[in-house]
Amino acid sequence: FGGVGSLTAVQIGAWVPGSRPIFYPKGMGQLLPKNATIILQVHYAPGSKGKTDRTRFLARLESGPMRRLETQPLLNHFLSLTNGPLVLPANQVKTIKSQFKVPIQGTVIAVAPHMHLLGKSIKVWGITPKKDTLKVIRVNNWDFHWQGFYLYPKALVVPAGTTVYGETVYDNTINNFDNPNSPPKEVRVGEGTTDEMMLVYFTFTAYQPGDENLILA
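Request: output the structure for the sequence above.
Response:
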């Protein structure tokens, strides 16, 4: 654990339990520069030593004019928490809040919230400079084993100056069937499944006129 070993790496994808392949809309894609090195970071569970890894990386490559997509965790447990740090005491249900102000107008095509076993629910929304509310994503019953990137049926245009808010609930009590600790103990940020995270990835592109009517799926 601990990153991919490069300070210049740009994320082009991810897999989490329950993920399905994601296919971008025609004419959109993430840039793979010539001579780029693809780094695959895999988290192995305890008991994996000596076993065979059958992981594969599959990508569909296309050339020609494309709208460039980027994937970034604009809400995260390092820079955007408003009541952090992400420390979950034993025997408590705790709500963690975050926010991010969008510097430029963008078009979001997919979103991927990410927590671990103590996560119970997450909702993300935006408030535009005109005080309109943007519904981003809401998961009322978080399941660590069923997560991934959710592609919008219609593009979500986010005006510059919009503040995006996140609210996540964690249950570190014996009432949480997925709690990895019995009895419960304090849990902090980490990349292991028994640690915790609060990340919301956005896949987006620079806005172009007419994106309000862009049908994605």
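The chain has a mean pLDDT of 94.
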